[in-house]
Amino acid sequence: MSTLGTLFRVTLFGESHGPGVGAVVEGVPAGLTVDMEAMKRELARRRPGQSKVTTQRKEEDEPEFLAGVAHGAATGAPVTIFIRNTDVDSRPYDATKDLPRPGHADFTAWAKWGIARDHRGGGPFSARTTAPLVAAGAIARQMLAGVRIAAHVVEIAGIEVPHEVAFDQIGKAEANPVRCADAKTAELMEHAITRARTDGDSVGGIVEVRAEGLPAGWGGPGADGLESELARALLAIPACRGVEFGAGFRAARMKGSEHNDAFDVDKAGHVTTRTNHAGGILGGISTGMPLVARVAFKPTSSLPRKQDTVNLATMKPAVVETKGRHDPCVVPRAVPIVEACVAVVLADAKLRAAAERR
Ligand SMILES: Cc1cc2nc3c(=O)[nH]c(=O)nc-3n(C[C@H](O)[C@H](O)[C@H](O)COP(=O)(O)O)c2cc1C
User: Fold this and answer.
1) Domains (ranges, CATH) in the chain?
2) Does ligand 1 come within 6 angstroms of the Cβ of 334?
3) Residue range 39-86, pLDDT digits in tens
């Protein structure tokens, strides 16, 4: 259904209101101890129903290994993870089966698959499929000893963190429901989400992710490069609308003399750069500087208010009002998903870099 990576390869499957969702993870080194506690911690960070700014759907997200793990360690066979759907209420979706929600994938699923599609809860387009991605990300993190990956929310509803946050401070974001490391901005963001929910509306925002400790030389030129692979993985997150690296779109407004990162040598004899407008990637290859990406998410499309649509059974204008449980803002819950994407892509880049040097 959806595959990321070459040597470390993650294939996701499942639907929101089917029996469950899962991942087949290939390339896990035989003998790697699978840290279940770490995996459960990551899944808990993604889980809905934990705060008033997320959907009230409550899932246990208990991962089961169907293959590839024995006695707590990877066997070398593909690791197959299954997470059952336990809190499924499909009733609200039956009344609106022929009424595509504006902004959601209901219409395009119908255009592609017709009446065979699973309309319940967004089917395969639901963010539910990101639960096994997060589980795979936990395995990837174990394969990335020495690399630290952390993300936090830097913008919601146009409210931005006014300054750069130090890497070690990003973890503080977990202390508040919007997952923004700047406590003052977090309060304003939370207020904006609550107001949107009260108004029967939704808001979007931006997650910033950083990875430190990766060496120079991972990745490659062209479509196999780190930027391309990361963008592919991140853009596949439901509701993701854009990805930028380093100075990103701001680079288009800078002069070369401002944008270029001058090279230097640190005390350990490693080549570094004095600035990091490149976001840690040049020519699709890691520079050894922190990898920095910002990932933009649109406002949630399902709204508890009337929206104009078309009845696909009669082809007549109609009105749809969403009754299910929805996130008024997906951005805080996207934080561990963004981190998982980066971990999966970097674990693959690490294996490929090692294979290419042989
Ligand atoms: C963590 C997370 C939670 C989401 N929750 C919802 C939700 O409750 N309601 C909704 O309509 N969309 C939600 N989405 C977004 C939809 O799944 C997505 O907009 C839809 O599948 C269409 O895909 P696209 O926006 O990428 O084009 C969520 C996305 C993420 C990342």
Assistant:
1) 2-357 (3.60.150.10)
2) yes
3) 999 999 998 766 666 665 566 789 999 999 999 999 999 999 999 998
Cα 109 to ligand 1 centroid, rounded to whole Å = 14
Amino acid making up residue 156: I
**Residue 61 Cα distances to 57, 114, 195, angstroms:** 12, 30, 29
**pTM, entire model:** 0.96
Distance, in Å, from the CA atom of 19 to the CA atom of 14, rounded to the nearest integer, reads: 8
Cα separation, 175 vs 172, in Å, equals 6
149-171 per-position pLDDT tens digit: 999 999 999 999 999 999 999 98
Q: Can you list the alpha helix ranges (DSSP code H) found in the chain? A: 36-46, 91-94, 106-113, 130-142, 183-198, 226-235, 256-259, 331-357
CA of 298 to the centre of ligand 1 (A): 9
Q: What is the pLDDT of residue 47?
A: 86
HEC-encoded secondary structure of 43-93: HHHHCCCCCCCCCCCCCCCCEEEEECEECCEECCCCEEEEEECCCCCCHHH
